[in-house]
C-alpha cells in the first residue's frame, strides 16, 4: 500500500472520531531553507490583480536575471533596481510565488532576515487560494506600503464574518468586519489589526536583522505572532526550527481572530502560502501621495531604479507544521503533488476516496483493508 493510500485511510478513520482539530502540539510537515523554495513553490508570472506597476517573472527568467537565488542558508527574491522603465512598457520586474501545497489547520513560521523596503513598495506574505479571490478566505500575515509601519494583519472573507472588538491580543483592532461586502472604500479592507511595534515592518524591521512571523489557523481561531530578531524571549522552538512546537507556550499574539461570530471553518478553505512584491497599485499607489514619497507613484517607479536596491526578500527559513497525531489536508495536498507523475496514479487515488464516501463506512473500510492487505 502506497503512502497516499495509507494517508487517505488515516484521514477517513480520523473523520469519524475527530470532527475538528483543536490547538495544541504540532509536528513539522515541511521545511523550506535555501533551494527548497525552488522545489516547493511555483512562480506566478501573471498580471498583477492589484493593478501594480510590476512585471512578475517566471522562475527561469527570475533566476537568469539574478532576481531570485539561493544559498545553503538563504533564499532571496528581489526587484530590478537598474532599469529605467518606458512609461508605455511593462512594469518593474519582481517575483510572486505560491506554495505547491495547500493548507487548512496548520502553523507556518517565517524566519525573515530582510523584507522589501522603499517608497512605492507593497510587499506581502499571505495565505489564500488566489484562483478564487477571497471565496476561500485570505490571511494577510505581513503587509504594508511605502515603508509605513507598523505591519497590519488582516482577514478577508466573502461570507459573513465578524470578530469582537475586545479580544486577547497585543495589537490594535482597526476594523472588525472581515467580509469584503461590508467594507467601505475599495471594498476589500477586511478586519485588520495593527502590530504594536514599528519593528514589525519596513526599515526598522530590517535594521533589527529581521524577525519571525508565525500564523496558526484552526477551525476555532486564527492567531499571528511577531518577534524581532534582536528581542529577548523568542520561544526556543521558533529559533531552533524544532521538529515539534506548542503554540500555547508562545504568549499573547499580536493578532487574534476567534470564531465567536465567524465560522472560520466554513469561510476559510484550503489556502496556498503566497509571497510577493508589487509597486503602486490599488493600495500603495493610492497612499503614495499621502506619504513623504512624492506625488506620482508610477513615475517614481519608472524613473528611479536605484531606489529599489533594498526592495528584496531574504528568508532564512519557512517551516510548516501540522497537528501532531493527525493527517491534515495539506499533507494530502503534498502527497498528491508527489504522486502526480502519472494521471492513472491520481485517478486510482481518487477512486479510493469515491469508494469511501459512496459506500457504508464499515463496508468501505473493510473492502479497503482487504484490498490493501490490512485484513
UniProtKB/TrEMBL annotation:
CDD domains the record matches: GH16_fungal_Lam16A_glucanase
Keyword Signal among record annotations: yes
UniProt-listed InterPro entries: Beta-glucanase-like (IPR000757), ConA-like_dom_sf (IPR013320), Glycosyl_Hydrlase_16 (IPR050546)
A GO MF term: hydrolase activity, hydrolyzing O-glycosyl compounds
Phylogenetic placement of the source organism: Eukaryota, Fungi, Dikarya, Basidiomycota, Agaricomycotina
GO biological process: glucan catabolic process
Descriptive protein name: GH16 domain-containing protein
Keywords: Signal
UniProt domain GH16: residue ranges: 19-292
Signal peptide range in chain numbering: 1-23
Organism listed in the record: Fomitopsis schrenkii
Domain of life: Eukaryota
Classification via PROSITE patterns: GH16_2
Amino acid at each position: 500500500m502506497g503512502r497516499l493510500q495509507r494517508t487517505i485511510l488515516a484521514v477517513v478513520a480520523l473523520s469519524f472520531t475527530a470532527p475538528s482539530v483543536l490547538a495544541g502540539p504540532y509536528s513539522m510537515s515541511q521545511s523550506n531553507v535555501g533551494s527548497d523554495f525552488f522545489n516547493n513553490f511555483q512562480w506566478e508570472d501573471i498580471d498583477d490583480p492589484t493593478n501594480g506597476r510590476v512585471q512578475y517573472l517566471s522562475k527561469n527568467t527570475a533566476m537568469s536575471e539574478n532576481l531570485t537565488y539561493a544559498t545553503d542558508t538563504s533564499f532571496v527574491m528581489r526587484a530590478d533596481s537598474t532599469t529605467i522603465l518606458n512609461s508605455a512598457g511593462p512594469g518593474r520586474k519582481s517575483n510572486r510565488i505560491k506554495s505547491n501545497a495547500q493548507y487548512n489547520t496548520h502553523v507556518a513560521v517565517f524566519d525573515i532576515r530582510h523584507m522589501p523596503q522603499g517608497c512605492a513598495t507593497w510587499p506581502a506574505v499571505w495565505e489564500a487560494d488566489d484562483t478564487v479571490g477571497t471565496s476561500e478566505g485570505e490571511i494577510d500575515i505581513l503587509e504594508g506600503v511605502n515603508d509605513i509601519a507598523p505591519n497590519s494583519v488582516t482577514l478577508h472573507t466573502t461570507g459573513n464574518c465578524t470578530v469582537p472588538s475586545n479580544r486577547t491580543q497585543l495589537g490594535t483592532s482597526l476594523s472588525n468586519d472581515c467580509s469584503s461586502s461590508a467594507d467601505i472604500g475599495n471594498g476589500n479592507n477586511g478586519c485588520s489589526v495593527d502590530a504594536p511595534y514599528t519593528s514589525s515592518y519596513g526599515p526598522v524591521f530590517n535594521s533589527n536583522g529581521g524577525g519571525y512571523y508565525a500564523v496558526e489557523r484552526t477551525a476555532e481561531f486564527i492567531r499571528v505572532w511577531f518577534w524581532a530578531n534582536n528581542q529577548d524571549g523568542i520561544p526556543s522552538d521558533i529559533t531552533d526550527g524544532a521538529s515539534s512546537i506548542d503554540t500555547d507556550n508562545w504568549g499573547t499574539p499580536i493578532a487574534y481572530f476567534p470564531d465567536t461570530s465567524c465560522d472560520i471553518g466554513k469561510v476559510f478553505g484550503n489556502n496556498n502560502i503566497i509571497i510577493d512584491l508589487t509597486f503602486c497599485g490599488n493600495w500603495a499607489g493610492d497612499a503614495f501621495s499621502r506619504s513623504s514619497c512624492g506625488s506620482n507613484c508610477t513615475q517614481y517607479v519608472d524613473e528611479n531604479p536605484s531606489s529599489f536596491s533594498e526592495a528584496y526578500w531574504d528568508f532564512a527559513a519557512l517551516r510548516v507544521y501540522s497537528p501532531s497525531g493527525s493527517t491534515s489536508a495539506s499533507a494530502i495536498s503534498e502527497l498528491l503533488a508527489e504522486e502526480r507523475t502519472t494521471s492513472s496514479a491520481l485517478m486510482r487515488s481518487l477512486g479510493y476516496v469515491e469508494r469511501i464516501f459512496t459506500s457504508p463506512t464499515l463496508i468501505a473500510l473493510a473492502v479497503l483493508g482487504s484490498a490493501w492487505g490490512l485484513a
